[in-house]
Amino acid sequence: MDWNRVEGNWKQAKGKIKEQWGKLTDDDLDQIAGKRDQLEGKIQERYGIQKDRVRSDIDDWCRRQTW
């Protein structure tokens, strides 16, 4: 799935993102508002993961989603 679909379905995606990355708060997700670069940054901040790994993890997560 491409990121445009995630962004377009952000309200639904927020719950699925919280399941995957539980350290993200509702406020974090509201601020991110579907912007992938902001999601990457927030995951890096909360989990201490390198940017390349975060990008790969998000890509993997997107591929597993069904809408």
Automatic annotation (TrEMBL):
<protein>
    <submittedName>
        <fullName>CsbD family protein</fullName>
    </submittedName>
</protein>
<dbReference type="InterPro" id="IPR036629">
    <property type="entry name" value="YjbJ_sf"/>
</dbReference>
<feature type="domain" description="CsbD-like">
    <location>
        <begin position="4"/>
        <end position="55"/>
    </location>
</feature>
<comment type="similarity">
    <text>Belongs to the UPF0337 (CsbD) family.</text>
</comment>
<dbReference type="InterPro" id="IPR008462">
    <property type="entry name" value="CsbD"/>
</dbReference>
<dbReference type="InterPro" id="IPR026042">
    <property type="entry name" value="YjbJ"/>
</dbReference>
<dbReference type="InterPro" id="IPR050423">
    <property type="entry name" value="UPF0337_stress_rsp"/>
</dbReference>
<dbReference type="Pfam" id="PF05532">
    <property type="entry name" value="CsbD"/>
</dbReference>
